[in-house]
Each structure stands twice: as C-alpha cells, then as structure tokens.
Amino acid sequence: MADNIYPVFDRIYDRKVKEEILRQSARVIWFTGLSGSGKTTLAANLEKELFFRRFFCQVLDGDNIRLGINNNLGFSGDDRLENIRRISEVSKLLINAGIITICSFISPTNKIREMAKNIIGRNNFIEIYLSTPLDVCEKRDTKGLYKRARSGEIKDFTGISAPFDVPACPDIEIDTSKYSVRESVDKIFATIIDRITL
C-alpha cells in the first residue's frame, strides 16, 4: 500500500511561510497529568490568553477527540498508545500549518509521551506537567470517575488501577492546588512566550 502513497508536502507552502503570515512560531503545548489535575481548564484559559495577544491556536482535548476522530478506541494499553499516536500526527499537521496547538491529554506513560515527542519533533514540543495530588484530583471529580474506578466499575483508570509515570524533565511543572488558574496561565505564558514569538 505504501507504494501507492505520494505525499504532496513539496508542492504546498511550507511551515515557515505560514508562520510568517501568522507572525508566530508554531509549537505543541502538551498538558499531561491525572484526571482532574486541571488540564482542560488551563488549556482553555491559555487559549484565551493567546488569542487576546493575537496568537492563532487550536485546542485538542481528550474528551473531544474521543468523541470524534478516536471514537473507535477504548482504554487498553494499545488503544491509549494509538489515541496519542493519532493526536500527535494531527498536532504535527497543525504546526506545519503554523498553528500553536494546545493538547490536553492524560498521556500517562513515558513511552506514550516519548512517542508523541518523536512524532511532533522535540523542538516543537513543550511539556506541561500538572502535578496536582491525587486526593485533590479526586475531590474535584464532578463526573464520579474516581469513585467508579475505586469500586472496580472502571478498569485501567490512571492513578487508581493503571500507572501514571511522572515526567522526568517537563518544561513546566504546576501543582494547581497551590496556584490559581490566573497564576498558572501567567506562569505558562512567561515560559513559552519566547518559543512562540517569531
């Protein structure tokens, strides 16, 4: 089948041209952390901050992606890997279009995050680890997922019955039980501004 595939990247405008038009450097800003750690909240608020400052960006969020492009995947180890592989390929396409891409995914293991970095490109990847303690995440759980996981109703739930590997060297680490949303977004923006400014 690969013999019949002919990429057209050499016939379309490249990333550099698109970044110049958008006046920004495209990057993938990747939030990782337990369910309830604040990934979706900070991703949404970071998008608002970037738009306010005239940056063009797109949020990819775990639940939204699983309702659409990855609606055929479950939560087994293989499906989690495929989930992130597809997201990484989509993210790569978006940054090649010059778009700052904000990803909000548990992405629980080092293997999964390494795969994402390799697909997207390490220079393009900004990793934000939300180190919010498990007990705080459980208290925030409006969907009741942790309770269902502890009762055995949900199998392979990250932090309860499935592992979460703490990132070794994230670009940013934030415990959202210690910082407000505003403080967290300010901290992230201060760290990434030089990397997203053309």
Strand and helix map with partners:
Elements: H1 15-22, E1 28-33, H2 39-52, E2 57-61, H3 62-67, H4 77-96, E3 100-104, H5 110-120, E4 125-130, H6 134-139, H7 145-150, E5 172-174, H8 181-196
Parallel strand pairs: 1-3, 1-4, 2-3, 4-5
Helix pairs in contact: 2-8, 4-5
Describe the structure.
With 198 residues, this protein is α/β, with parallel strands linked by helices. The protein has a single domain (11-193), classed as P-loop containing nucleotide triphosphate hydrolases (Rossmann fold). Helices cover 44% and strands 13% of the residues. The protein has helices at residues 15-22, 39-52, 62-67, 77-96, 110-120, 134-139, 145-150, 181-196, and strands spanning 28-33, 57-61, 100-104, 125-130, 172-174. The chain has a five-stranded parallel β-sheet, with helices on both faces. Helix 4 runs parallel beside helix 5 (110-120). It is globular and about 55 Å long. The N and C termini lie far apart (39 Å). The mean pLDDT is 92.
Question: What keywords describe this structure?
Answer:
198 residues, alpha/beta, Rossmann fold, 44% helix
Describe the structure concisely:
The protein has 198 residues and is of the alpha/beta class. The chain is built from eight helices and five strands.
